[in-house]
Amino acid sequence: MRLQRFLKLKYLGILVLVGVISAGIWYSQLSNRHKAIVKTRLLHGFRIIDHDWEISYNDNSIALESPDLLVDNIYQSMDGPQAILNLELNPDKNSLKWITGFKAEVYREGTSEHNNDFLCHTNIDFFNGVHYKNLKLPKRINSQYPRLGTLSNGINELKFPEGFGFPMAGNDAFIIASRTLNHNIEDAFFKVKHQIEFTTENADARLKPLMPKALVLVLDYDHENPDNPEPSDDPNLCLPLDLKNHSFPNAEGVRFAAHWVLPKGEHLYKFDVTYQLQLKDDTQIHAMAAHLHPDAQEFTLYDLTEDKPVYTINCENYDEKIGLKNVPTYSSSEGLQIYADHEYELQLLTNNPSDEFRDMMAVLFVYLYDREMDEHLQATSYLQ
């Protein structure tokens, strides 16, 4: 009996050991991003670090605080641990509210100041099916990518101009995804939290509605051999990263890369985004915010028809470390006029001074006066 029990324990121990070794081999083969996903799930799942979001609703603001996120490695853009929250930003089903701005800050444990170095991004998405159904405008469902905006390294706040906002009906559903960044601290081992705030107004503020549009600069690549292209290939082809999550169709429906390896030196990238704007009428841009990665220098929305820039965002990079120090936003009640019969492109100037790996993404969020929504809201009971 003792021998049988010993053998059972022995075999059980061997199975456990094999399982641990197999798990270790599997984990070692994961990318840095997927290792961060596994670690975060384990740390939150076993309650080793704070795993809950904190949500506070006030009269004219909504404050969110993320769970702890462990920074224990160098995390390039899009690689770090993240926390995701599904919530209703307007839980009152009988009233409309306006979002007038949003802010994201990252705090390293033991500190009380926002640290830009650890903000990869905070993505704010809305469920367009719920959003437009609740606003009684179902024809818009699935008509565009439903992202309200992104705050990221170098840009942690966007305020809409006075008199403008994004309307949300009662019970509107949103997804908040905050990811952590660490380009510079090699021996990192500390926790951070993301604090996110929305400023709001009630329906009776009677603001003018804004329509967010994400204009994505995408590049062609070797579709036959995307991971290991021949050096003799067209130099205009990029080396893509993460085609599963960051590729988008061009005007002809061909998938292009929205996340790519940044070559050394200075480069100017251009991409026609007329089809992404989908303008039916002339309108005005009242706010803009850019999601960029380090080494971006200038980001321009260019009017091809008039052969002149609509607006240029001049970026400031750190001199002593990797990172975007400042990416200015645009916010104006007067706005910038754009035309339905014009063609537009994004132009991105980059300068990578290093031989080391650097990557790039370039998305311009434009917020257009939404005349159709304005007339629709005026004709319904939402603003009563």
What descriptive keywords fit this protein?
Jelly Rolls; 42% strand; 5 helices; 11-stranded mixed β-sheet; alpha+beta; 384 residues; 4-stranded antiparallel β-sheet
CATH topology of the largest domain: Jelly Rolls
* Largest sheet properties: 11 strands, mixed
Mean pLDDT metric: 91
Q: Strand share of the residues?
A: 35-45%
Q: How far apart, in Å, are the first and last alpha carbons?
A: 82 Å
CATH class of the largest domain: Mainly Beta
Structural class: alpha+beta
How many helices does DSSP assign? 5
Descriptive overview:
This protein is of the alpha+beta class and 384 residues long. It is globular. The chain contains 5 helices and 25 strands. The chain folds into 3 domains: 2-30; 49-208, Jelly Rolls, CATH 2.60.120; 212-372, Jelly Rolls (Sandwich), CATH 2.60.120. The strands form 6 sheets. Strands 1, 2, 3, 5, 8, 9, 11, 12, 17, 22 and 25 form an 11-stranded mixed β-sheet that branches. It has a 4-stranded antiparallel β-sheet with strand order 4-10-6-7. The protein has a 4-stranded antiparallel β-sheet with strand order 16-23-18-19, with no helix packed on it. The chain starts with a helix and ends in a 6-residue tail after the last helix. The mean pLDDT is 91.
